[in-house]
Every structure is written in structure tokens, then in C-alpha cells.
Write a structure and sequence with these properties.
The longest helix is centred in the last third of the chain and has 23 residues. The protein is globular. The two termini are about 35 Å apart. The chain is an alpha/beta fold. The strands form 3 sheets. It has a 7-stranded mixed beta sheet with strand order 2-8-7-6-5-3-4, sandwiched between helices. Strands 9-10-13-12 form a 4-stranded antiparallel beta sheet. The chain has a two-stranded parallel sheet with strand order 1-11.
Length: about 425
């Protein structure tokens, strides 16, 4: 554990020694604003902006011929971007693609891999995952004519913050067909022991899928070693692909012969796609799980930002992220705990993702007060202010200033001016 100090000079010294500090200039950060919501929507990068504007020019110049220029790059854009994402999770390029939204990709993967029988039909989930995943799981179970109350096996959290890997493994009974869990819990930042769960599931013949929404771009993964069956994620959080950016999907190459659960035009083998047959012949790579024509404007920002991420490397990003979150937790302990603040995420570096979960009974109104002070966090029920100091554009001095602002809000109860009535988006 790094030794931290309470002075502003310490934060300034950390920034001076930071090898990633120069990358902040490649993001559109606002003067005077402290952006702590990169785990929900990442800041726009100049690289992403350039790629998006370039795509607009390509459309203006080439029209329908956009699909044929540069050796068919944009007709196969999902393959190109997949090859750029693959190093972030150490997967083979052909195992990674971009398509749809996260929830559509959950539907696609469960429709593909969930083949219930009378003896083996249950799907293990947890009770802390983001609701959309559960909606998709329940929907797919109903499409099979089954009742989610019976077929969906929920592993319940003991503390309302974390999920026990022991309980997940204990739930892997003979009637379980699939395990589908988040890599990092969106509220508490718990990083699951993915390798242990995957290995234990495979010993029992159970399919394993992971939702990487809160780990992609901030936690290095090794899918060649992990050997999970599938994974899905969004590209607009840590990867800063833009609001509602196209989703990502990993399909283990050992499953390339499987028929996609949801077949579509763009998943057809490229050699026969324009023969326009009514018999689907799926591509034998992750691209076989595409459905409709790829939205180039939604994909283009990723090209720029992935260039940046691969230039830096996930190990360096993770190292700084851990240092920033360690420092933030230190300041919360030393300066804010006396005001009723508590840290709700695991403290161990191998058990947490990229954000800190600051718990307080007035978390909602504190979140609103932070925004008034030009700090961008977000709130999650029932009592969590999520703070994500993203390595590429947040400084140690930003974290220090955040602690200053929080102490001012708490000591002077500035949050009391705000209503506790929930707004639509916080």
C-alpha cells in the first residue's frame, strides 16, 4: 500500500511524477470541473472526435461506396474495432466484435448458449447486478416456456454490497445450465474472482458468461486464460466511446460452430452474404453474432479512443487507477469519516474495480450539491455516491480538491438546500 499524505503539495508531487498525466490533454475536460463519472459516461476524447468527424467526411464523399473503400474497412469495421479491443481483455481478435447495445448482446448470448433440458435448466444470477441484465435473462427464460421464479437462481448478497464467490459456487447444482454475472458490481465496485467461478462452473459442465460493463477499459482481463464462454459490455463508460456507443461482445472460439440465437443479415458469412439466400450461413467468428447493419457513426469514436488506450496499455491504466482510488479512500478515511462517510467498496486492490463507493445517509443530496460545486459524480440507491477517478484524465490534485469540496459540503450541511425527491437522471 502506497503511503499518502494529507497536503495539497503531496497531490501536486504525485501529478508531477505521473507518467500518464500528458494524456489528459487528449480529452475535452472542462476548466474547473472535476469529472468523477467516467464509470457511467466517459469524457469525450479528441481522438474520438477526430474519428467521428472523419467518418462524416467519408460519408459525404463516398455515399454508398463507403462499404467498398479502404479494402472494405467499413463493411468489416466491427472486425477492425474488435481487433483493437481484443488486447484490452487479452482475447483473440476473431473472438471480439462490436454490435448492438449491451442488453441486446445479453439477449443474443443467452439465446445462443441457454439450451435448457428437463434436468438442467437454471441460470445463476446475483441480486446486485444492473437490472437490464436481469430483464434480459428473465425474458429469455420466458421465451423457453419456463418460469423465472423457478429457472432463475438468484445468489443473494449477505451484506447488500458484495456477492460471495463461495455462495455462487455452492449454487452450482446439477440443475444449473448457465452462470451469468458482472465482472465488477456497478454499485460497490466489487471485482469478482472470475477465474475461480469460471473454472468451477466448467468443472460442472456449466456455461459461463460475464458482463464487463464496469471493468472494460479499467481492469485488465486475460480471456485466453479465463476461457469463459461469452462476455458482453458497453463502450461508453471507461472506454469513452460516446453516449449510447455500440456494445461489445466476446465469443470463445471453441463455440464458433454454434448457431447464433438471434440470426441476422450482418452475421452471415461474408463470402455468401450478397448471394441473398434465405438460408442463414453464419460467419465462423464473433462477427457471426451480429444482427443488423453496423451503425458507423456509433462505432467511429471507438477507433480514436482505442488507439489511445492501446498506446497507453491496460497495465499502466490499472496501476494509476488503483493509486487514485487508494488516495481517494485515504482522504475519505482521514477527512470525511467524521461526517458519517463510509467506504462501501472492497479495499483490496484485487477485489475492486475503478470507482469508490462513498456511502452516506444523505448521499442523494450530497450528489446534487457536488454538481452545484462543479463536480460530476453519480448516485446509486440507496446511499451511494459513486466516484470514478479515471486514469487518463483525472489528476491527484482533482482528488484532493474533491475531498476539499466534500468536506465543505458536509461540515456546513450544504446538501440540505436540495430536495430528496429523486430526479429522472442523477
Amino acid at each position: 500500500m502506497q503511503k499518502f499524505e494529507l497536503t495539497r503539495e503531496f497531490a501536486e508531487k504525485m501529478d508531477q511524477e505521473d507518467m500518464l498525466a500528458k494524456y489528459k490533454e487528449r480529452f475535452h475536460t472542462k476548466e474547473g470541473q472535476i469529472y468523477m463519472d467516467g464509470n457511467s459516461l466517459g469524457v469525450s476524447s479528441k481522438d474520438a472526435e477526430e474519428s467521428l468527424l472523419n467518418m462524416l467526411e467519408i460519408w459525404k464523399e463516398h455515399g454508398i461506396n463507403v462499404w467498398s473503400i479502404e479494402g472494405g474497412k467499413y463493411f468489416l469495421y466491427q472486425n477492425f474495432l474488435g481487433s483493437q479491443i481484443a488486447p484490452l481483455i487479452n482475447a483473440y481478435p476473431e473472438e471480439v466484435t462490436v454490435a448492438n447495445s449491451t442488453t441486446v448482446n445479453v439477449h443474443q448470448c443467452i439465446a445462443t448458449f441457454y439450451k435448457p433440458t428437463k434436468e438442467r435448466y437454471k441460470i445463476i444470477v446475483d441480486d446486485l447486478n444492473f437490472p437490464s441484465d436481469r430483464y434480459a435473462v428473465d425474458s429469455q427464460v420466458k421465451l423457453k416456456g419456463l418460469n423465472p421464479d423457478d429457472a432463475v437462481k438468484v445468489v443473494k448478497s449477505k451484506d447488500g454490497r458484495t456477492v460471495s464467490e463461495d455462495l455462487v459456487i455452492e449454487a452450482m447444482t446439477d440443475d444449473v445450465a448457465m452462470v451469468f454475472l458482472p465482472s465488477v458490481l456497478y454499485r460497490s465496485s466489487q471485482l469478482m474472482d472470475m477465474q475461480r467461478i469460471t473454472d468451477e462452473a466448467h468443472k460442472r459442465g456449466i456455461v459461463v458468461g460475464w458482463d464487463l460493463c464496469h471493468s472494460i477499459g479499467i481492469v485488465p482481463h486475460d480471456f485466453k486464460k479465463l476461457d469463459a464462454d461469452f462476455a458482453v459490455w458497453c463502450n461508453y463508460k471507461y472506454l469513452s466511446g460516446g453516449p449510447g456507443a455500440i456494445g461489445g461482445m466476446y465469443i470463445n472460439k471453441k463455440h464458433f460452430d454454434k448457431e447464433p440465437g438471434l440470426a441476422g443479415w450482418q452475421g452471415n458469412a461474408k463470402a455468401t452474404q450478397f448471394l441473398l439466400r434465405h438460408t442463414f450461413e453464419h460467419a465462423k467468428d464473433a462477427g457471426g453474432w451480429l444482427i443488423g447493419t453496423q451503425p458507423l457513426f456509433s462505432m467511429a469514436p471507438l477507433e480514436g479512443v482505442l488507439k489511445l488506450y492501446n498506446e497507453v496499455g491496460m497495465d499502466k491504466i490499472r496501476e494509476k487507477s488503483l493509486s487514485l482510488t487508494d488516495y481517494l479512500m485515504f482522504l475519505i478515511d482521514e477527512r470525511l469519516s467524521k461526517y458519517g462517510c463510509n467506504i462501501g467498496n472492497p479495499r483490496e486492490e484485487d477485489r475492486r474495480g475503478g470507482h469508490v463507493s462513498l456511502e452516506h445517509p444523505e448521499a442523494y443530496r450530497i450528489c446534487l450539491s457536488l454538481k452545484e460545486h462543479n463536480v460530476i459524480p453519480d448516485f446509486r440507491e440507496p446511499n451511494v455516491v459513486r466516484l470514478a477517478p479515471v486514469a487518463l484524465y483525472v489528476t491527484f490534485e482533482d482528488v484532493y480538491k474533491l475531498a476539499d469540496i466534500l468536506e465543505d459540503i458536509l461540515s456546513n450541511k450544504k446538501y440540505e438546500k436540495f430536495s430528496s425527491k429523486r430526479e429522472m437522471v442523477v
